[in-house]
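Ticket #4471: structure export looks truncated?
Reporter: QA, pipeline team
Priority: medium

Steps to reproduce: submit the single chain below to the structure queue and open the exported record.
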Amino acid sequence: CVVWNLMQRFSDRKQFQYFICHHKAAAAAQARLLKIKLQGLDSSSTVFIDSDNLQHLDTLFDIVRTNVENLVVYLTKDTLTRPWCAGEIATAWQNGIRTTPVRCPCYSSPTHEQLQDLNNYMDLSSANLMQYSITNEMVAQGFLSLASSREIVLDSNLVGFAKLEDVAQKVVGSTRAAQVLQSWGVASKNQHSGQSAISESTVV
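Actual output as written to the record:
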């Protein structure tokens, strides 16, 4: 049953298995290298980074909502202050998309006060999230969900390509483990449903 559920999952794959949310000014090169490393570990995966895949900025949140399986958030100092990153995280939270934070040493989580005053915390000069029906409450909930997710921390003992290789391996490993657990859950649910049906027919 588990093997069948895994096969069914892969047959229903979305266009992008990974979407790398990042602040371009601080992590454009890292995001591109992480994409290369992810695809090297799983040649069947497609990875979205906006500089390669985005044609129209207005479709960004729709892509996250409908065509992404895993959102990888590369957290540098100002990632969450960028409205496009905040909108991606909020959209993933609202649609139940698995999210993996990758934390750099320069990152620190927003404080409670900053979450209560997102209009000042975020740099809204480049985008108005309300235009896309994304409220500050949704952003705050997305940030809180991100903070509670199991994070990957950059290994300070590694440098250069090895550091991103390590991150990619952990992202893929975590994703595959989640897929297996989900498949076990589906198999268990189906088995329980089958047993219930048998019990009901026996009673009748």
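Status: closed, not a bug. The export was complete when the record was re-opened. Leaving a note from the reviewer for reference: Confidence is low (pLDDT under 50) at residues 1-10, 197-204.
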